[in-house]
Amino acid sequence: MTVVIDQTAQPQGAASGGKAAKPAPQASLYKKRDPIYPKLVNGPFRQLKWALMAVMLGIYYGLPWVRWPRPDGAPQQAVLVDFAHGRFYFFMFDLWPDEVYYITGLLVVSALALFLVTAWMGRLWCGFACPQTVWTDLFLYVERLFEGDRNQRIRLASQPLSLNKASRKTGKHVVWLAIAAATGGAWIFYFDDAPTLWNAFWAGTAPIAAYLFFGVLTFTTYSLAGAMREQVCIYMCPWPRIQGAMLDTQSLQVTYRYDRGEPRGPHKKDTSWAGRGDCIECKACVTVCPMGIDIRDGSQLECINCGLCIDACDEIMEKVDRPIGLIGYDSDYAVACRSKGETPEYRFIRGRTIYYGVALIVVSAVIVAGFVLRTPYQLHVARDRNPLFVRLHDGSIRNSFTVNLVNRSYTSKTFVVSLDGLPAPRLQAPGLTADVRGVSVKVDPGMERAVRILATVDPTSLTTALNPARMTARIDGKVLTAQTVFITDGARP
């Protein structure tokens, strides 16, 4: 085997002066964010968003300061999550830790309502009521105050750093931080008495958790609403991906009516509209979009259905003397029908809306029934297992029970506890008064009390080793019962 070596071969790049060729640059896997500068537009949807933003921010910032009359000793704050005492107060309602299923039920109702609204009108929640949308709108408002509208902000961003640019940017971020701090501060007031925590916070005597959550909420508000904006909706929020399961061709969404807009193209004044669509390629719908998308490309994951492109397009249509509504809330089915010359039929009641609606009504009814039938008193009984029973010197049998009484009212209550279903039981409770009616137990308002009750019965009057019985508590005309058992000789646990 002969190996031939070509000695005339030269290293790559030698022919051009001996310098090695530079390797081709690798494409980056990370795409830098392209800043979006949405233009301010005036119209019905923009005005609606301003109104909803004012209402929702007013509720969020003001609700912790609303007072609600309750008896002395109870919190006077209308809405309060009192972790220290295990209570959740909401105006006339108060929930205990074991009633968390009500909150779970409210979350289920909220989810079903969101499903139903989405099946009807797409991401209506995202465009008008989502906290990310509300705070982003507020931050954009502040940005416009300092830097101007879209074109001014773009020019400012492209300019080198100057005193004017630095002062505008600094002022904007200072106000952003103030809003973020107010957001974090309002949040912590939901977990303690607002006036008391306000004074303690500035005095430096508030709990460390208050300062911790104030810092966390301030940072997240500033970063999500100020820096990340649309990226939260596109990359972080799971709802854009989930909503696809709720939508169908009958769902109303912000839609470009291509049956009317195509073929698109620039338009000059006093020229004919024959043979062309109403879209004049002005891109007004793109410049106002807070997500930076072109609604004419069809339904997209990024679209939050805020309707600002509708306002922008209607404004242009009025200027060129064309009917408004080239972009509007419409269904894919309706647009397809009109493109074929057919009259669309809108079906708001269909399979998925019936399912969501019925489920919403059923769960809501269960929650309401639970509140209506809810009693402020509870009785729980646990029979002592060691020993199972005690035989006294006179031959009678004694069982011991731990009775837990709950008083969720705002006044002290006296429960009369008796043991029913047994022949002539004699009840005793250390430190408490017992008579023929039973054992009287006083429970303070909003408290639980566990008492040990001793029940003695003559075994000759019992026919079995395991004798069913009922522990009964009478309070304010109400009778609470809990099933238990009385054990005698020969019984096994």
Detailed description of the structure:
This protein has 493 residues and is an alpha+beta fold. Helix content is 39%, strand content 18%. β1 and β2 form a beta hairpin. α4 (131-147) packs antiparallel against α6 (163-188), α4 packs across α8 (208-228) and α6 (163-188) crosses α8 (208-228). The termini are far apart. Mean pLDDT is 88; it is low at 1-17.
Notable features of this structure?
493 residues, alpha+beta, Immunoglobulin-like, 2 domains, five-stranded antiparallel sheet, 39% helix, 18% strand, disordered N terminus
Concise account of the structure shown:
With 493 residues, the protein is α+β, with helices and mostly antiparallel strands. The protein contains 15 helices and 15 strands.
